[in-house]
Design goal:
The chain is an alpha/beta fold. 37% of the residues lie in helices and 13% in strands. The chain has helices at residues 22-28, 47-60, 87-107, 125-144, 168-180, 192-197, 202-209, 234-244, 265-278, and strands at 5-9, 33-36, 63-68, 111-113, 149-153, 186-191, 213-218, 249-252. It has an eight-stranded parallel barrel with strand order 1-2-3-4-5-6-7-8, surrounded by four helices. Helix 8 links the parallel strand 7 (213-218) and strand 8. Helix 1 runs parallel beside helix 2 (47-60) and helix 7 runs parallel beside helix 8 (234-244). The protein starts with a strand and ends in a 30-residue tail after the last helix.
Amino acid sequence: MVALRFEANISILFTELPLLERPAAARAAGFDAVELWWPFSAPVPAPAELDRLGDALGEAGVALVGLNFDGGDLAAGERGLLSLVDPDSGARFTDNVACALAFAESQGTRVLNALYGNRVEGVDPRAQDEVARERLAYAADAAAGIGARVVLETQNHLDSPLYPLVDPADAAALVETMRSGGHDNVGLLCDYYHLAMEGFDLLGSTDRYLHLIDHVQLADAPGRHEPGTGAVDYPAVLGHLAGAGYPGWVGCEYRPSGASAASFGWIERLAGLVSALAEGGEGGSRQPAAGSGPDAGRAGLDGQEDGR
């Protein structure tokens, strides 16, 4: 059994505050680490914008342990650039990979999320999938240069109706293909919210794909609020994950039902339940991914406190 380490996604949490104030708010709430969707409208923002974000993270004393590559206009329904075949998307992706990895290297970030991209009407899905494999290989090769990993995530068809990766078996097959081709730094992002929205068995999925999982995110379902507000049995899910030996970070990627700072009581409330459930947890275990982050975080759900 391991202590699960929680970090805050400050693209969806603490949105009551400007972006540059959110790292300090996360630290005040007890987190030593955060993650971000790509926080800029441009794939390559002005250097001063990157510097200001880096300064805000450093001054708050939080590590950036996860970062998305540019996903396009998420608010407008775009969901990534990997599989978009038009030349503009290709150039945007290439430019962003270089920028995102440079920022990641400066922050010690070692997990980067590449959203697959929506299906495009009139474009052969096989052509999109071929482009996605090429771009994923490109990003993985570039990430390897800083010792980082690139992860793929499934979504759900209600929130992202044009996103083709909704079945974890499909995402896992692509990860296996990339690894068999020599890109060992490609892995899965296991998002329990999306899996729950699609009706998958969360405990079974954990066991089936643990050897591929490099990052985990959570939110309750339905609603995408904090655990305890929906139908997911998070004491069982997180106890199983801890018992399986998952060593990476768990990103709190939810929209709080109230104020962000008041939405973290579930972590302490679940600690005892998870500790008991994890005693009987089954599933494979694996060594931590290279660069999986410092041994710090919010309270670990094995009944012990992580250093912070």
